[in-house]
Amino acid sequence: MRARMRLACAGCAVAAFGWAPMGAFGPMPLRGQARPGGTPSVFRQFGERVVKIEISESGSAAKASLGSGFFVSAGGDVITNYHVVAQIVHDPDRYRARIINAAGDTLGATLLAIDVVHDLALVRSSAPPSAWFTLRAATPDQGDRLFSLGHPRDLGLSIVEGTYNGLLRHTLYPKIHFTGSLNPGMSGGPALSASGDVIGINVSTEGNQVSFLVPADQALALLDRTRAAGFQPPTNFLDEAARQILAYQDIYLDRVFRTPVPTVTIGRFTLPTEPAPFFKCWADADRNPEQPYETVSHQCSTDDYLYLSEDQASGLIELTHQVLTSSQLNRFRFYALYSNEFSSGDSPMWGDEEDVTSFRCVTRNVRRGVKGTLRTAFCARRYRRMPGLYDVVVRAAALATRNDGLVTTLTLAGVSYENAERVARRFLESISWTE
Amino acid sequence: MDRVILVEVRDRRLHLRSRHRLERFPISIGRAYDNDIIVDDRYVDAHHASLSLDDDGVVVIEDLESVNGVKDGLRGARAARIRLPSGGTVRLGETVLRMLDVGHNVARAVPLADEGRLVSALLTPTAAWCVVGGSVLLAMLLAWLRQYSGERAVVLISAALFLFLGLCIWAGIWAIVGRSQGGRGRFLTHLAIASLALSAATLWVAAMDYMEFLWPELALRPAIQYGGSVLIVAAALSAHLGLVSMLSRPRRMAIAGLATIVLLGLAEVGSWADENEFDNALHYSDVVRPMGAGLAHTVTLDRFLDDAGGLRADLDSLAERRNRATAANRPAPHSETAR
Questions:
Q1: DSSP of B281-307, one letter per residue?
Q2: What is the ipTM of this complex?
Q3: Coil, strand, or helix at residue A394?
Q4: Could you say which of B280, B287, B326 has the minimum Cβ distance to residue A347?
């Protein structure tokens, strides 16, 4: 799986020490040209509205992680990413945030609202800003220049020029494709048009200038929520995060494995593939002549997930099929191989004792009419501090009567139990083979 | 004198060294060669003690002012003069003397069948070797059936050799125990017993795997598997014990059963403790066997998802239990003010 990097920066100072310029030449001198709408002018004009956000553990003086943010109101409202402040949400007793403004003053910060689905958070600074952005709807054209501001690797406020490449299609939640280099520490910083409109919020990168922004209208929606009459910050942000995730997943999981499920045929097995448009699928085969068997694998996964904490994600759905065939092994030896492929072991998901329970499993031989019988295990664990959220792994082996076998695994991270059962049912129903 | 009295000379493990008929008294005992009974024990004096009859016709032993003296019975204290009725014992240094009338009662013979019919069959070398060879072949066959990435004869042969070596060590220990108890070693019979037990255990585990495959929800299966394992191990231990000791059959079966339950119980407790440790692994029933689904106990998809739904309550109570435990262990939050 390809790794997508969130841009919050833990241990950036350490990273910066180990960082040296490449090559023997000094930096090229740049001649500043102050033409209106150019990069230097954007930086000068809007730089002071961007802040650094540091998260520190109350027992230790130095910061534990950092990100960026920007003022959006005269009252000191700051928009940033949820993943920048996630530690405060998970452990409010241990962590606190502070804001460092462009002048270098350290301000207190209070978390007001979160939007886990779009990876946004709103914090209120203890002092009003001298300048702020006004969020409004703006739709650039593909190819328009954007300027992203933030604190890459704690190296000071920086500006990155890039291009707007439209909204990504087929994602779990809306995202802007920004062609420009975002780096850890820039999370939560604004990406501006030349006229200074906030177009998006820096959120993640896949490297090589492939970066992503949260559309600014989501930040506006979050800000509007806090301005509504009678708004009160949630007393427990973790419960609020769980509530938002559960509400959102009812919508997107409903689209997973909808009939007619697209299928792929491998050997005599007909298997579900691309459960929804926001999945990406890959396939490969292992046909080593020294081995008396062949393996064909097919994998689909969501390209995207919701960030919950360093070890936890929601919305990650993965589907893996493995079809084994052998003409050389006798049935006993083939089944030794088959058992080994089906064997239990480490889960495909991270997690530590603080966050999740151990897995519990149920195994049955499940008959599905003419579609054949599957040896099926349903394993689940609960998020300890987010009631209602579970990680689920469904793994099944086809009980076929020839020298071939299918081991298939469905992994669902951070879903409600009802949704897990619903998706598992559709998944198991969409597998069949010919005898 | 019409009574005949015998004296047995035994070492400190009570193994018989020599037996003497006493036809005249007094009798001298010591390490010197002019004694009537010569005892090879460096803790015995050259002229250590003498035996005579008292007025009642009972044998009396008198200490001849020896260095280590004469002690009463197997654990008694030193005395200058000790009366020894039939069956009575005394100690001289590390040697034990036992006095016996020729009319002393002797227990009935232990019937040969008490070793068990199966074990009696294994006493012949041909039968024993057949059993050992069969077990090794079975282990090789199973190892071959478990191989799926190419044929590797080396693996099979080394598996067989290691198995044979392990069995030999086990049987060797029992043979040594048997010899130390004064009996015969009977290495080959011990080897055959161990081989037989191992094969039985292997087949039992394989049968239980099939059972797990066919009927994964059978809650009784772990108990059945445990019960069967206890029976196999206890039977093997009891057979080994029968060869090395004179214990009666019910007694050695009780000892073997108890030892097995304690041993396997410890293992069970260990795995139960592991189960309650946090880990990141999936522990499901992952056996698939080449039988198709025809004989298997199957459930509908609805029923399966119902059963899966039952996990939820378990997980919720597990999470709450853990949360309570953490809350109890957590120190009070820092009361430090923001800087």
A1: B--------TT-SSSS-EEEHHHHHHH
A2: 0.80
A3: strand
A4: B280
Determine the length of chain A.
435
Cβ neighbours of A343 in B, within 8 Å: 286
Give the strand pairing for B27-30 and B37-38.
parallel
Asked if residues A353 and B278 have their Cβ atoms less than 8 Å apart, the reply is yes
Q: Average per-residue pLDDT in chain A? A: 86
Q: What is the pLDDT of residues A362-379, one digit of tens each?
A: 999 999 888 889 999 999
Is the CB of B334 less than 8 angstroms away from the CB of A381?
A: no
User: What are the chain B neighbours of A59 within 8 Å (beta carbons)?
Assistant: 334
Q: Which of A335, A367, A417 sits opposite B293 (nearest CB)?
A: A367
Contacts with B268 (C-beta within 8 Å, 6 or more apart), sequence order? B226
Comparing CB atoms, the residue among A293, A362, A384 nearest residue B308 is: A362
Interface check for B316 against chain A (CB to CB < 8 A): the answer is yes
Among A165, A159, A199, A154, residue whose Cα is nearest residue A181: A159
Query: Smallest CA–CA separation between B288 and chain A, in Å?
Result: 5
- DSSP three-state, residue A62: coil
Q: Cβ distance A192 to A46 under 8 Å?
A: yes
The answer to whether the CB atoms of B311 and A329 lie below 8 A apart is no
Compute the distance between CA of residue B145 and CA of residue B132 in angstroms, rounded to an integer: 20
d(CA B273, CA B189): 38
Mind listing the domains of chain A with CATH numbers?
A: 14-233 (2.40.10.120), 247-433 (3.40.1000)
> Are A58 and A94 a contacting pair, CB within 8 Å?
yes
Per-residue pLDDT of A76-116, as tens digits, reads 999 999 999 998 998 888 898 999 999 999 999 999 999 99
List the structure tokens of B221. 């299966």
Q: Are the beta carbons of B309 and A417 separated by less than 8 Å?
A: yes
| Cis upstream peptide for A275 (omega within 30°) | no
Instruction: Name which of B150, B283, B292 is nearest A292 (Cβ-Cβ).
Output: B150
* Separation of alpha carbons B243 and B192, rounded Å: 12
CB-count burial class (<10 Å; 0-12, 13-18, 19+) for B154 = exposed
Q: What is the pLDDT of residues A107-156, one digit of tens each?
A: 999 999 999 999 999 999 999 999 999 988 788 999 999 999 999 988 99
**Model-level pTM greater than 0.95?**
no
CB pairs < 8 Å spanning A and B: 185
